[in-house]
Amino acid sequence: MAENPTTALTAHWRLPPFFTLQPVATTRVEQLALWRTLIVDFCREQRLASLPLDAASGPPFANTAISRALDAAGRRAVADALIAAGEAQWVAGAAGERLLVWWRPLAHWADELSRHLRSAGGSVFTMAELKSTDADSPVRGCELYGLGADLVRAAVAELERTGRAATFGSKPSVAGGDDDEVGVKLL
Question: Which residue segments constitute the domains of the chain, with CATH numbers given?
Answer without folding.
Answer: 11-101 (1.10.10.570), 106-186 (1.10.10.10)
